Amino acid sequence: MNDRAPAPGGLALVQSLVNTLDRASGADSLDTAEGLARLGLTPDEVPGARELRESLRAVCLAHAGHPAHAVVTPLGELLARAPLRVTVDEHDGGARLAPAENPGPFVDPNSPDSPGSSAPRVPLPARIAVAVAESLVEGTWPRLKACEAPDCHWAYYDRSPAGRGRWCSMSVCGARAKMRRYRAK
């Protein structure tokens, strides 16, 4: 439903996870092999991914000034289960957050695989925690929002100058809301 550009950096992973469920149709890409592969998940990880997705959706709704869509586990509790560590590059002195399970010096939060062929997979909660932490530093975290349409709640990155975007798509959800207001007059 979203006609906007993807969120920047690691927030694209967060946005992608939240948007695995189409609330209007009920279609959940976590039920498909392609959806699991896109996020680097195994079937055993799906229940935890769904719990994380709905907690992220509640936070995205809060960013837009809306109440949670359901009772969910607080995002902080879920991310606390994914410990992070600071890594420092020996060559340039750059520091980054990385999942504690990752033995390599750096991790791409969008990649389910750690650097190196024999390195362990990086769990989704750890990748999400890195993406959230980095977006907090960059100041982009509050701009990841969820559409206010109750049958949508699609995640989008608000690039409006004032940061007051309300819908994932002005041409779909925004137009529907404006038409409902007009007809109610």
Would you write up a description of this structure?
This protein has 185 residues and is mainly α. It is built from six helices and four strands, in the order ααααββαββα. The strands form two sheets. It has a two-stranded antiparallel sheet. It has a two-stranded antiparallel ribbon with strand order 3-4. Residues 103-107 and 114-118 have low confidence and may be disordered.
Quote the beta fraction: 5-15%
Could you tell me the radius of gyration in angstroms?
17 Å
Shape: globular
Low-confidence stretches: 103-107, 114-118
CA-to-CA gap between the ends?
Answer: 27 Å
Record field, number of beta strands = 4
* Helical percentage: 25-40%
Structural class: mainly alpha
Order of helices and strands: HHHHEEHEEH
Number of helices, counting only DSSP H or I runs of 4 residues or more: 6
Q: Give the averaged pLDDT, no decimals.
A: 83
Widest sheet: strand ordering:
1-2
Question: Mind describing the biggest β-sheet?
Answer: 2 strands, antiparallel
